[in-house]
Amino acid sequence: MFATTVRTWLRAAGFGPAGQRRETTWREFVRVHRHSLLAVDFFRVETIWLQRLYVLFFFELGSRRVHLAGCTPNPSAPWVLQQARQLSWAVAERSEPIRFLIRHRDQKFTDGFDDVFRGEGIGVVRTPFLCAAGNGVAERFVRTARSECFDRLLILNQQHLERILDVLVDNYNGHRPHRALSLAPPQARRPASLVSACDDARILRRDRLGDVVHEYELAA
């Protein structure tokens, strides 16, 4: 009787026998848990003196908010571990806790790096080998940063890059519209306003980074 009841419940829920159940796809996992997912990744920037600098950032998949961890010419494991500790303090203050961290299988992400987040109750999910799509949302931010900023600028040195990153991340989080957020930024500076076609509204444009990045808002 009990086995028959369980089978009835499983069929009603759309589940077949245990050996035939379909595994959750990666896309389904991300969609279900996106508001509690954090991704981490690097991208490289070349200076005019051919120095290679590495930028470490964290990305909240649900809110699309970027956390800039830092940049360095030598992304050693101890440096990455220190950035992880600093980010974990900020994550702990969120109203909605982070449940999972997505990362590549880079050797700079050591067991100590994982332990920092596990100590905060955050599970670490490693993407498959040579699979950039496994961390596709963070990779999409890298593409945006390159196409809208770094492909148009010449970087002098690390200090110059840090100043540009501060402006870029501030614009991305506070002003740039995102389709996944109904064309709202992750951290809007003011509540969204609806302006009808008959309103005599003035739009102010603010140019940043030498006219590379533009910010638009309604005039007061």
Give structural notes.
With 220 residues, this protein is of the alpha/beta class. The chain contains six helices and seven strands; from the N terminus they run ααβββαβαβααββ. The protein has helices spanning 2-12, 26-33, 77-91, 111-118, 136-148, 158-174, and strands spanning 37-46, 52-60, 66-72, 100-103, 123-126, 203-208, 213-218. It has a five-stranded mixed sheet, with helices on both faces. Strand 6 and strand 7 form a beta hairpin. Helix 3 (77-91) packs parallel to helix 4 (111-118). The longest helix has 17 residues, at 158-174. It is globular. The termini are far apart. Mean pLDDT is 83; it is low at 192-198.
- Sheet/helix structural class: alpha/beta
Average predicted local confidence, pLDDT = 83
CATH hierarchy, class: Alpha Beta
Helix fraction by DSSP (H/I, runs of at least 4)? 25-40%
Shape: globular
Topology order in helix (H) and strand (E) letters: HHEEEHEHEHHEE
End-to-end gap: 70 Å
User: Architecture in CATH?
Assistant: 2-Layer Sandwich
| The CATH H-level homologous superfamily | Ribonuclease H-like superfamily/Ribonuclease H
Count of helices?
Answer: 6
